[in-house]
Amino acid sequence: MNMSDVETFLKSDKSIICGAVNSLSKQFGWSVMWSRVLTLIAIFLSPTMGLIAYFVTAIVVSQQKTKY
Q1: Crossing angle between the packed helical segments 32-45 and 47-67, to the nearest 10 degrees
Q2: Which domain holds residue 48?
Q3: Structural domain total, the chain
Q4: Where would I find the Phage shock protein PspC N-terminal domain in this sequence (predicted)?
């Protein structure tokens, strides 16, 4: 696996785990790749808080999708 494969994987529009980062980046017009990179950095710096924030975001995003 080379770097272009990793970049293509991070830029893809499909959800990787819960789809929280993909949904937020689409909603705010951010780059999907850089949103995922920043999320990974946040999880590595503070795993407990990063994962809690990620899964809370995933729950909120999934509830917003089902409402409308």
Answers
A1: 140
A2: 18-67
A3: 1
A4: 11-62
Question: Average of pLDDT values for 25-54?
Answer: 89
- Closest by Cα among 66, 68, 67, 64 to 24: 64
In one-letter notation, the amino acid at residue 38 is L
Interatomic CA distance for residues 24 and 68, integer angstroms: 16
Give tens-digit pLDDT for 14-38: 767 778 888 888 888 888 889 889 9
Name the residue with tokens 């899964």: 55
Place of tokens 């999934």: 62
> Distance (Å, rounded) from C-alpha 18 to C-alpha 24?
12
Contact 40, 20 (CB under 8 A): no
Q: For residue 43, give the 3-state DSSP assignment.
A: helix
